Amino acid sequence: MPPFISVPDLLARIPLTARSVLYVGCGNGELAAAYRAMNPKARLLGIEPDPVAAAAAAGHLDQVANVDIAVDTLPFDLPDGIDCIVYGAIHELADPWTFVRRHAEQLSPDGIVLLVLPNIEYWRRTERFLRGLADETGRQHPWLTQAGMTEQFARIGLSVCDITAVEPDLEAAQWFSNALSPGLSALGIDTKDFARRCAASHWVYRAAKDSIQRIIVAGNMLKPVGGVSHVRVMHPFQALETATAVTAAVVSSLEIKPPDDGIPRIFVMHRPSLVGPAGLSTLQKLSDAGYLAITEFDDHPDHFPMMKVGGDISFLGVHAVQTSTVAMAEALRKYNPEIAIFPNAIASLPEIRNFADPASLTFFFGALNREADWQPLMPIINNIANMAGSRLKFQVVHDQGFFDALETNQKTFTPICDYETYSRILGGCEISFMPLGDTPFNRAKSDLKFIEAGASRAAALASTVVYGDSIDDGRTGLLFRDPMEFHSRLLRLIAMPELARSLADAARQYVAEERMLAYQVATRIGWYRSLWNRRDELEQARLLRLQRRLAA
């Protein structure tokens, strides 16, 4: 990985749909390791001339070749080609495009090349030049401009998909541009345009064999509480954005569609409460702006107050609905037949941090509105906590009532917190408690708590309601049907830490193989495109539903 760019900057540009990724100059494998955590099934290959770095990278990639990066013939078996080739610092070489051309011949039909290059117009470099100081970028190739790069890619049969700025310092660039304003004006250079061009220190280029029609996926979201906004909106949008033909973002205002530009536009509303004239106005604004409207909802709507005052237009007034479970889809189908199910999924497997002390286990509980579910089990928890003493510790997030009811001093409380803090606390625990009573509302819930625990390698102790459909009892977690079974299973986990570890390992493997967000990206994009292709039909159906609803 080039030393001048951070892992997140590059990671966000590697498509999560990739089945194979080649890192040319893979270094110690840091970037590949981060991508592996997001897309465990991908085949990761590396070329690294430094033998020490290559040896370190071997622990993160499927195969590392300790050869010169300018090798003409790639030393890998590539029957299906390569979906993404990542380069860094090729500008330091005398003739990089010869081997880039050869490598690009191995791209799969949808494959891309990703390049990181310095911005020769970066304001700090320009300032150093004006002060007579040396430039740190090394070779100054004539193609180190956006126009030059576009031409170079065209010569090897590729088209630029997008160019992303690395750490743009817009305020400083504007200051620098203003300082040079007289000279820029004399040269006929627009000050604002120069400020835009000189803001980024580096550019990330992505190029492909064939251009694909871009699709815009915009959306809004509720204030992040308990991780729902992250899992249902933020993480999926970030995953979609890794695709070269997708622009995805959570927005505060609508981008009005230019006349006849033909770009598909999707707007995803997170748990909207569309009621009365204001709700109808929101739908009309989306239509006027050229968007297909989708409602994202992952809790049973009948339990929301808006449904008593006409909030059903949140579902029947949109073109389609997306949700997380089959039960939720059935509950929503009476309002809208256009429904997609995208199960909750994990964006990235966290670093393993638990099971470090064999003499102690930590019991995690962190959920919203579960009082009625845990209260019948609290006497059992306290009884076992009293017997276990210091061998059983507790981490409680959000639920002050649960924390106060624990009759032990081996407990720690964290008020409602951001998702990163929640995940970090969960990752330090060995047992994750997931109670759900058998109610219609609970039966429509998802298994998010289980996959979060599995990703963190914590053993799930869960009710059969909801979790019985996901947990392989005795292999990826332990299920309980009643207080007596809960009692016996919690005792087993405490008495047999090796069982808890085995369950947790299997659950993490299940998540890595089946429940990663990377595995949904292509399906989500395909569904959005299919909706756009049927937009006239869907608009007619939407208007008819609204007409019938308003006439009722």
List keywords for this structure.
23 helices; six-stranded parallel sheet; alpha/beta; 19% strand; Rossmann fold; globular; seven-stranded mixed sheet; 552 residues
Provide structural commentary.
The protein has 552 residues and is an alpha/beta fold. The chain folds into 3 domains: 7-208, Vaccinia Virus protein VP39 (Rossmann fold), CATH 3.40.50.150; 215-346 and 521-551, Rossmann fold, CATH 3.40.50; 361-514, Rossmann fold (3-Layer(aba) Sandwich). The protein is 38% helix and 19% strand. A 7-stranded mixed sheet has the order 3-2-1-4-5-7-6, with helices on both faces. α2 (30-38) links the parallel β1 (20-24) and β2 (43-47). The longest helix is centred in the C-terminal third of the chain and has 18 residues, at 497-514. The relative contact order is 0.09. The model has no long low-confidence stretch (mean pLDDT 91).
